[in-house]
Fold:
Amino acid sequence: MSDILSRWSALLMGTGERREKQNIIWNMVGSFCYALASMVLSFLVMRIAGEDEGGIFAFGYSTLGQQMFIVAYFGLRPFQITDGRGEYRFGDYLHHRFLTCGAALLAGAGYLLISGYTLRKSVIIFLLICYKVIDGFADVYESEFQRQGHLHLTGKSNTFRTVLTVTVFLTTLISGRSLLAACAAAVAAQTVGVLLFDAAVIRQLPSVAADWDRKRLRPLTGAASLLFVSVFLDFYIFSAAKYAIDAYMDDASSGYFNVIFMPTSVINLAAGFVIRPVLTSLTGYWTEMKFGKFRKVLCQISGLIGALSLLAAAMAWLLGRPVLGILEMLLGKTYTGRLTRYGLPFVLVVLGGGFYAFLNLYYYVLVILRRQKVIFMIYAVMTVLAVFLAPAMVQQGGIYGASRAYLALMVLMAVGFVGCAWLCVVRDENRRSKEEREDFPER
Structure:
């Protein structure tokens, strides 16, 4: 058995000479596959099983399930992959993830108990929560791969697990037309995928320390708690309109809103490709007190994201209804006119996605400045606003109200992040320049 595992791991790892190239390629492939699956699965469920089933799946997969993924994930990936000195061992991270995954399952079950859903809907959504929690559990392995210099293993795990689970899910759904059975099959496939592409492989990496210390779990929790709360609140604000639709409208409406929401995944993926490459440069300029270069790069990236966002909104305005019409044709004759009536909400959601991409840049700016408390305060204020604004606007305007609520929340949050980031930049520049003059008066 160990010989089989060794051969399997060697097949996935590849050769040392090609590792850097593989890291880049497989990371992009994995990210693309994961984002593509998130975009199209709900659409395919609507096509195969109907609008109500599609709506249940959309809410369970991309909203509540993803919220519970964040609980399981606990915001630890950035902390783990940058733990180069080995402050915590892999075993510490692994056992901490056992706890957070358990908490996610309990939280999801608790939400369903008070939701008032039918038993069947509750079971389907709980299975989707399990699917997402297992995905969150896999992240602890994938983070360790990256920490050990094997980012390509992270990309391969993302790619192969996504292909495996989506294939099993769609095959089961098409053959039996049962969403419940398909979700159960997807959970089983996800479990097998973690065993094959994560657990089996990491045992073959000699530098991974599997031992752990119970006393390390509490400080590890404390180190990531504020980041976790911020990420949790961020996703709630991002999804507040979806929660409101689930609470005050029917399942079909959840499905339709999720379809017009699909472009946000593309926008976020594209923004990530723009933002991530410059984070190292921005951090270096700030650390080295090259404030002019810091501001120049920040303004350039801001302009690029702003231009791309406006372009996306303009294309949505010009091509939105034709695109929605094509989607109706793909869904089937029974959906004629069901999506094209949401042309304006589609434009508003795309525009909101642009503001979300823009505020993400300034989120990272505040992280570089180590202003976690400022980040938390913005999220706290916006969460309170989202709790009241999204339900009120959905009850008043349905899906159109939901799109307006999403846009309003993204605009306000972008204003908060941009304003606070530039205020902190100016203040920190003045403070650090003053300190340098005091330390080196001859300058």
Remarks:
- The chain has two domains: 1-212, 240-435.
